[in-house]
Amino acid sequence: MLVKCPVCGAHTPRDVAVEVPARGEPVRFCSARCAEEGVPGEDAAAPLAELPALPRRIVVAVDGSGPAQRAVEHAASLARAADGELCLVAAVDPRLLRAFDLVSGAARTVDLGIAPDEVQRLLRDDAAAQLERGARLCRESGVKHSTRVEMSPPLAAILEAAEEADLLVMGSRGLGAISGAVLGSLSHRVIAESRTPVLVVH
Ligand code: ATP
Ligand code: MG
Predict the structure, then answer these.
(1) Would you say the CB of residue 27 lies under 6 angstroms from ligand 1?
(2) Can you tell me which atom of ligand 1 is nearest the CA of 92?
(3) Is the pLDDT of residue 144 over 80?
(4) How confident is the model over 2-13, as a mean pLDDT?
(5) 88 CB within 6 A, ligand 1
(6) Hey, CA dihedral for 168, 172, 175, 177, is it positive or negative?
(7) Residue 190: CB within 6 Å of ligand 1?
(8) Domain 57-201 classified CATH 3.40.50.620?
(9) Residue 139 and residue 147: Cα distance in Å, rounded?
(10) Which residue has its alpha carbon closest to ligand 1 atom 25?
(11) Where in the chain is the domain with CATH 3.40.50.620?
């Protein structure tokens, strides 16, 4: 049985045609070269129909750094153009709390004068203050937004928050002390693992 190549129109035996999976029936081309060109006309544009014209649900990862604040600015500008909304997320790594426990445990005789749950509250307040800076920018520019502090490891918190979003925006670097690298370790890992498109702002 012969199939007609949708690119050049040549007729090719079905069993030697190059098959490309598609929604519904697979598409059969006469050659790999035609397959690379793809289906002309409406079919070629079809995948775009499933994507939003502009990202409307945008998650921004915020850690109080300059690049993260610039990420908020870019995201707010996109959201305003798309009549979308931002979700600003800051994560407090529980390892910080454990580290503090170790320190205060070792130094109990010195008495640091601050209880572990107080530390947790301070860290949460600090994250909320970092979010507030971004939230203020949104309020002043009339951009719909919400804020979230997650008491969980930042990588998991950010990936989870972005799962249902159209776009994730973050800074290239954060508050980490190691300089020289173009990307911080969290940006690096988010780019590697996110299934939502990521915009990284310097
Ligand atoms: P490192 O942490 O590896 O020392 P860094 O701090 O310079 O390096 P990253 O931590 O990768 O860089 O930060 C990059 C971006 O990730 C930040 O601009 C911010 O958008 C986001 N980010 C970092 N930490 C957090 C966090 N705790 N919660 C939410 N977003 C964060
Ligand atoms: Mg960091």
Answers:
(1) no
(2) 27
(3) yes
(4) 90
(5) no
(6) positive
(7) no
(8) yes
(9) 12
(10) 63
(11) 57-201
